[in-house]
Amino acid sequence: MTISTEQLQEYTRRIEELAVKLGLDFYPVDFELVPNNFMTEIAVYGLPVRMPHWSFGIRYIHQLIQQGMGYSRIFEVMFPGDPCHAYLVKDNSLPENTLVVAHVLGHADFAKNNHLFRKFMEMAGGHILEQAAARAHSIERALEQHGQERVESVLDAALALEPHIDVTKELHRDKSSPVFPAPAGMSRAPSAAQLSMREDFRRRYQQLPGEGMQLSLEPMEPARGPTLEEYDLLWFIANHAPDMAGWERDIFLAVREESFYFYPVFACQIMNEGWASYWHARLLREADFLPQDLYLSAIKAHSDVVRPFAGERQLALAINPYHLGFSMWENIIDKYGIETARKICREEDDFGFIRNYLDERLAEKLDLFVYETHADGDIRVASRDIHVIRETILAPKFNFGAPRIAATGIGQDGSLELTHDHRSDGRGLDMSRADRVVDYIAQVWRRPVVLHTVDERGYARDISSKSH
Asked: Where is the SpoVR protein-like N-terminal domain positioned along the sequence (predicted)?
């Protein structure tokens, strides 16, 4: 069945009306049909227009290989906002794009009502496409003024730290002075008010009986060692790197703002995809205006999206968030009703969703288990315990999927000290990747950088930058 733009527009209008009738409350959605290659670019870059960087080209090639091998197919890309923006592949069939329209409305409802989406949208704004395009334009100007090599080195560092934000803090933070010794070249001179208070204290001190001696009020030698714990590395470097130019700071803050925008998508993926899948199935089922053959083709596409198998009923060794989320929402609505489901949709993220609503009966029904790979290549079931299953599903989501690393001090020479909180995230670092990232940071910090961590085997390691 070939696609008809007029038919799709009519079905979109009627599905939106049905969604409102069924109680969905969503931001307006701008739908756009685009070529498959453009859709691939959007999926790889994360945005239709974004700052240029070589790493996106690598991701693009990887995506093409995945698609060529039949492991990946993109039906839609949707950006939450007011309005939301949704891109559909114009070469897909009318049934497929009709299903995608219904799916996107589920996403739009989730984005408007979920507390995490609401919080981060209030901070980062609801016009991500326009904001991202403006940032890309600024970086194009920086390329013209400062050259590709300089701009690319800053982007290398910023994008390497892309997930290293502190989601417990606000996007727009005051540039408060951190408590650590002043690095070389950075003044910590007392203010006029502080000098006046110091002189007043000196005068009153000398008037006390028996206190005619000279009093030294010079600053004491600051204590050595870490006196700081800042996990928002993008914010910290942008605000406190000793010699960073304004345009370099702007790049760091731009990457940070985009990370804040995308965090709810990451933190609610299973909930969000499951909610959208539940609603596209229900909307199609209740859309009596759809032709029978279109409905059957759309439901076939639905089955392909939410299937638990890797292909040809091969056992899947990774969670399909569509399948797991869809199954959980069906289970919740069957047990507690739609209003309780809406409350959960508003109040939870994937951590609360999985821990509170993935029960043993459903895990058994879905045949969920934790596996381990042995040296001989065998894959064996390690556990079917529901608590182990839940935490294994959630482990990659901890701390935005990144190692928990904080800036913990600045030396007298301006060197930066980073510390990996490996006890919290329960893992060592890939040493070769960590080594590259430390060098990226040193390029913009322009002083030595050292990272205290443990390796994959749990042994303490210090990684020092080579650039400075």
From this structure: 4-393
pLDDT of residue 63: 47
pLDDT tens digits for 373-431? 666 666 666 788 999 999 999 999 999 999 999 999 999 999 999 999 988 877 778 88
Same domain for 101 and 134: no
Report d(CA 339, CA 185) in Å as an integer. 60
Residues 148 and 110 in one domain: no
What total number of domains does the chain contain? 2
CB 439 within 8 A of CB 430: no
Under DSSP, the state recorded for 92 is S
Share of the chain above pLDDT 90, in %: 56
Q: Can you tell me the distance from the alpha carbon of 223 to that of 161, in angstroms, rounded to the nearest whole number?
A: 29
User: How far apart, in Å, are the Cα atoms of 324 and each of 269, 363, 398?
Assistant: 11, 9, 19
What is the C-alpha separation between 63 and 43, in angstroms, rounded? 9
- Let me know: does 151 contact 284? Beta carbons within 8 Å: no
Question: DSSP strand E in 1-142: where?
Answer: 29-34, 76-79, 84-89
Give the CA dihedral 174, 180, 186, 188, nearest 10 degrees: 80
Helices first, then strands: H and E counts in the chain: 19, 9
Q: Are residues 34 and 140 in the same domain?
A: no
Note down the domain range covering 80. Answer: 1-114
Whether 166 and 254 map to the same domain: the answer is yes
Instruction: Please state the pTM of the whole predicted model.
Output: 0.82
User: What percent of the chain shows pLDDT beyond 70?
Assistant: 76
Alpha helices in 218-359 (DSSP H): 233-240, 246-267, 269-286, 292-306, 321-336, 338-347, 350-357
Annotate 328-378 with DSSP letters as a single string. HHHHHHHHH-HHHHHHHHHH--HHHHHHHH--HHHHHHTT--EEEE-TTS-
Note whether 2 and 150 are same-domain residues.
no
For residue 238, give the nearest of 154, 312, 134 by alpha carbon. 154
Domain membership of residue 414 (yes or no) is yes
Residue 115 in tokens: 């507390």
Instruction: Tell whether 422 is covered by a domain.
Output: yes
On whether residue 322 sits in a domain, the answer given is no
Residues in the chain: 468
